[in-house]
Amino acid sequence: MSVRYKAVIPAAGLGTRFLPATKAMPKEMLPVVDKPAIQYVVEEAVAAGIRDVLMIVGRNKNNIANHFDSVPELETALTTKGDHAKLGTVAHSSKLADIHLVRQGEPRGLGHAVHRAKSFVGDHSFVVMLGDDLIDERDPLVPTMLAVHERTGAAVVALMEVDPEHVHMYGVATIAGQEDDGSVRIVDLVEKPAREDAPSNLAVIGRYVLSPTVFEVLERTQPGKGNEIQLTDALRELARDPEGPGVYGVVFSGRRYDTGDRVDYIKAILQLGVEREDLGPDLRPWLKEFAATL
Predict the structure, then answer these.
(1) Looking at residue 58, what is its pLDDT?
(2) Which of 2, 76, 261, 279 has its CA 20 to 30 A from that of 243?
(3) What's the rounded Cα separation, in Å, for the pair 114 and 25?
(4) pTM of the shown model
(5) Segments making up each domain of the chain, as ranges
(6) Which residues have a Cβ under 8 Å from the Cβ of 82 and sit 6 or more positions away?
């Protein structure tokens, strides 16, 4: 990788689908097995060689900052007890990356949240990683996207084939051909279309590589779906610009855990839990027994 990238993690949502649990706790801090969801995303960024991370937060998000800070009294207590295993996990999160926070202010959509990162990223390309989408560490995605961006200079989004019944939950891409490296050229995007209006079943999932050009487009992007400033609408303009580098997609077929709604959140915990060496041996037989009673 020839450029040092920064990562931007929008984390300003209200988490209304998880109320009342998210009344006082950010949804990004809900545990997935034994780590908050947002830690998986930071670990993914670090694995891709990114250590400078900006989180776009809203009110009641102090828990996020606290999680990635050191806790001397807890570390001292664990040291005194000789619990070096737990001490290691506590210290790990505080040493992962350089974490910065900026408030979004009023929640005006993903496009608005990304624009808040303008001064942080400066004149360099950057990665946007949404905390609702957890990508399994065994199936790295961001490095492939960065390689496509460095080859083309284009914005790059992660795509995944989804059930046509679910296209209304995503931005959906129209593509025109496949490149030698497996990436696809995106010629149009539409945010959360009805099934009958969707141009494909290739949905945008929560990973993007963007150049600073996107900020100029976001500044003139009008509120769209949900009366919010949609990143998809800005990407659509970039994709349609005949003089620009365009937008490319990387179609992901690896393991992804969607923690965006309650059912998928529970599935994510079970999927990750059964594959853990310390939990799987006890969890797998119990799941089989439990499933047999349904």
Answers:
(1) 78
(2) 2
(3) 22
(4) 0.91
(5) 6-260, 262-294
(6) none
Tally Cβ neighbours within 10 Å of residue 72: 8
Dmax of the chain from CA atoms? 64
Mean pLDDT, rounded, for 90-94: 84
β 52-57/6-11 pair status: parallel
Q: How far apart are CA 104 and CA 56, in angstroms?
A: 6
Three-class DSSP labels, the chain: CCCCCEEEEEECCCCHHHCCCCCCCCHHHCEECCEEHHHHHHHHHHHCCCCEEEEEECCCCHHHHHHCCCCHHHHHHHHHHCCHHHHHHHHHHHHCCEEEEEECCCCCCHHHHHHCCHHHHCCCCEEEECCCEEECCCCCCHHHHHHHHHHHCCEEEEEEECCHHHHHHCEEEEEEEECCCCCEEEEEEEECCCHHHCCCCEEEEEEEEECCHHHHHHHHCCCCHHHCCCHHHHHHHHHHCCCCCCEEEEECCCCEEECCCHHHHHHHHHHHHHCCCCCHHHHHHHHHHHHHCC
Half-sphere exposure of 147 (CA within 13 A, CB side): 12
Q: Report the distance separating Cα 3 and Cα 5, nearest Å.
A: 6
Residue 1: predicted pLDDT: 47
169 vs 230: CA distance, rounded Å: 13
The CATH number fitting domain 6-260, selected from 3.90.550.10, 3.40.1360.10, 3.40.30.10, 3.40.50.1240: 3.90.550.10
Beta-carbon neighbour count of residue 29 at 10 Å? 21
Q: Would the pLDDT of 178 be above 90?
A: no
Q: Supply 68's token pair.
A: 């990635």
